[in-house]
Amino acid sequence: MHQRKKKEPSSLSTSQDPPMPANLIKSVTRFPPCFKSLLLIFSLLLNLYLLGNLWYTFAPPPPIISRLAASTTTRRHIVFAIASSSLSWPRREPYVRLWYSPNTTRAFAFLDRPVSNASSSPDMPPMVVSADTSKFPYTFKGGLRSAIRVARVVKEVVDRNESNVRWFVFGDDDTVFFVDNLVNTLSKYDHEKWFYIGSNSECYEQNVKNSFDMAFGGGGFAISHSLARVLARVLDSCLTRYPHLYGSDARIYSCLAELGVGLTHEPGFHQVDMRGNLFGMLTAHPLSPLVSLHHLEAVDPLFPHMNRTQALEHFITAANVDPARILQQTVCYDRSNSLTFSVSWGLAIQVFQGKELLPDLLSPQKTFMPWRRSSKVDTHFMFKMRDYPRDPCKRTPVFFLESVTSDKRGIWSNYTRLDVENCFEFNATEQLKQIRVFSTKLVLDSERMKAPRRQCCNVLPSWNDSMTIHIRPCGNDELISMHSETPVFS
Ligand SMILES: *[C@@H]1O[C@H](CO)[C@@H](O)[C@H](O)[C@H]1NC(C)=O
Ligand SMILES: *[C@@H]1O[C@H](CO)[C@@H](O)[C@H](O)[C@H]1NC(C)=O
Ligand SMILES: *[C@@H]1O[C@H](CO)[C@@H](O)[C@H](O)[C@H]1NC(C)=O
Ligand SMILES: *[C@@H]1O[C@H](CO)[C@@H](O)[C@H](O)[C@H]1NC(C)=O
Ligand SMILES: *[C@@H]1O[C@H](CO)[C@@H](O)[C@H](O)[C@H]1NC(C)=O
Ligand SMILES: *[C@@H]1O[C@H](CO)[C@@H](O)[C@H](O)[C@H]1NC(C)=O
Ligand SMILES: *[C@@H]1O[C@H](CO)[C@@H](O)[C@H](O)[C@H]1NC(C)=O
């Protein structure tokens, strides 16, 4: 162990130790000699401090207690039930392909009819044709009867008697799951107890119509196996009492309410009742790991200059390198240049001139529109939002993820500047074209999941057209702000 500690930081420091920035050298020469030596000592101390931080990052994760290891929830403990139809399946297959892998995930796709020409390829989930539901009443005007069939997927998947299931997870055929994060999220809860886990809509009006405590089906939701077995037994009885409801998720919610079970809210599930550019929402993701995204067909590509599929694949490549860190927001400050960096790992970095307070950066920028286009009333979202300038020239520079590489020492993610044409850019970052971010894989054991803490970052003092940010765990009482020392009053 000692040997490892000695080796790693030293090899890192050689490749990373940045040359002294030109402006710092200049300012040094202006001071009298004794001041110079003071500054030298200071910079030495700073280097030692930075090194110390590297050491911290490379400390091995705490050992997993073997007693727990036997009972750790894994991917294989989850059975997914995907609600689909013969019409939508051919179009949505690519979304399922993004997260489903036959060797590690268990899933079934429930369709109304067999799809004759579907690629029943072994790398896609088996298709199951749902039972007939014509005997159940459905009275919601303008709604779709298929809501009943989709609600009954809960019963149909449980009745398959799959072995060794801890959680049943339900989603649409256009729900993209981040399976490792889902596993981590569910690991917080005891699958032997009754749990209904998911998230409501981002849109206030949708929640008013349904319930603030309903898990919206597109974002997906999880039901512990013990609860799912009971729900499967009573579901048909419930279905006869709720013909007036619109969707399948409202039917499940109602039946669970009759069983006396409420929703456990997990903010990593995303119904995405919005259109347009998700940038503002995604770059201010909550501390919980990203579990799902929905409606990706209806939103702009996640990255500029790419089509939807390409952009999503690019995003998932990053998510596969460090699942727990994807979209996690970290903020750091460059005091000497008076800049604020907001890093949303795996997607983008925004560079603000001057000091931005951390809590302000945690509010999503309003880059998106409501799901319902024709809504006459103003739509309200469930979060406080910041304005996003309509004029692209007034927006803060954005650097989008270009590549991710990893080796034994850690992970480099590189971000390149999105050029906005015909804008007069501000000085401090004019020539900055690339930002490289170094981090180590974020390990989330269930204890850390229960009490998450945002990480900190340093801007390494060398920038030109490219600069480096180092993400690391925060110190014990470290504050994320531009001036974080305890003030000295004299
Ligand atoms: C899945 O398992 C099969 C058989 O064991 C193997 O041939 C295949 O390479 C595996 N696929 C992946 C993606 O690991
Ligand atoms: C397969 O089915 C889809 C939708 O049902 C249809 O659009 C497509 O033309 C079919 N392809 C073939 C080769 O039959
Ligand atoms: C599941 O188990 C029940 C009860 O043992 C049985 O009635 C049913 O046929 C089984 N279903 C399947 C698909 O094997
Ligand atoms: C998206 O881009 C990729 C790569 O350029 C291309 O192969 C694919 O056909 C494109 N998809 C669509 C729907 O345009
Ligand atoms: C990203 O940055 C690292 C560190 O400088 C470098 O080794 C790597 O080649 C860069 N990748 C790309 C695609 O620029
Ligand atoms: C950039 O710096 C120059 C010289 O310091 C100044 O004249 C100019 O107004 C600055 N531009 C902006 C956009 O701040
Ligand atoms: C900054 O860029 C110039 C020109 O590309 C290069 O000569 C110089 O070494 C760079 N400085 C640093 C600190 O990277």
Structural topology:
Layout: H1 2-16, H2 22-29, H3 33-58, H4 66-69, E1 78-83, H5 89-99, E2 106-111, E3 127-129, H6 146-151, H7 153-158, E4 167-172, E5 176-177, H8 179-186, E6 196-198, H9 204-209, E7 221-224, H10 225-239, H11 248-258, E8 264-265, E9 274-276, H12 279-282, E10 292-293, H13 308-321, E11 329-334, E12 339-344, E13 348-353, H14 358-361, E14 368-370, E15 398-406, E16 411-417, E17 434-439, H15 446-450, E18 456-459, E19 466-472
Parallel strand pairs: 1-2, 1-4, 2-3, 6-8, 17-19
Antiparallel strand pairs: 4-7, 5-10, 6-7, 9-14, 11-12, 12-13, 13-15, 15-16, 16-17, 18-19
Helix pairs in contact: 1-3, 10-11
The structure holds 2-acetamido-2-deoxy-beta-D-glucopyranose (7 copies).
Strand order of the largest sheet: 11-12-13-15-16-17-19-18
Q: What number is the mean pLDDT?
A: 86
Using the CA coordinates, give the radius of gyration.
25 Å
Number of helices: 15
Report how far the terminal alpha carbons are from each other: 45 Å
What is the strand tally? 19
CATH class of the largest domain: Alpha Beta
Q: Helicity, in percent?
A: 25-40%
Shape assignment: globular
**Main β sheet profile:** 8 strands, mixed
CATH topology (fold) name of the largest domain? Spore Coat Polysaccharide Biosynthesis Protein SpsA, Chain A
Listed once per kind, the bound small molecules are: 2-acetamido-2-deoxy-beta-D-glucopyranose
Domain count, please report it: 2
| Proportion of beta-strand residues | 15-25%
Structural class: alpha/beta
Uncertain segments of ≥5 residues (pLDDT<50)?
A: 1-33, 51-69
Query: Under the CATH scheme, which architecture of the largest domain would be assigned?
Result: Alpha-Beta Complex
